[in-house]
Amino acid sequence: MPTYTLTPRQERLYGHLCDLWERTLSVDPATGAPGAETLARVAENVPCYYQYNPNVDDPTDAARFNKATLFTTDKVHLPDGVTVSNGWWIVNRTPGPNLGEVHKVLGAPQINPGDSARATNKQAVTCMREEKPPEDLVYE
Hints:
It is a single chain. The chain has a single domain (about 10-130), classed as Bacteriophage SPP1 head-tail adaptor protein (Thrombin, subunit H), CATH 2.40.10.270. With about 140 residues, the chain is mostly beta strands. The chain has one helix at about 10-15; strands at about 15-25, 35-50, 75-80, 90, 100-105, 110, 120-130. β1 and β2 form a beta hairpin. It is globular.
């Protein structure tokens, strides 16, 4: 059951669906050394809006695979109340050409709960499209 509510504007705009995957690193209790990375699906079919930055090198790709800069990253807008964090993975579940596309979240979400005049109830995460996502990630 979702922990968020969409505003009427979000219901019209959020035409995409995504899955959120959390990345965790295990730690050896004896040595404190980092262990294996595990992935767990945290949320499925979350309504969202992908804001793609154009790729000047190849206009057919949604985002560039180069260094993460302001000009090579995309944004994914999610309802406020959805848990997402740095290093997580977002998988596009929207039927169409970008189905299965994987983005990695870069940094903390920008939360905008709105004010009394306009309740936006949204958050945006900066992310970068991954050319080679982890093998454990279900993205097809």
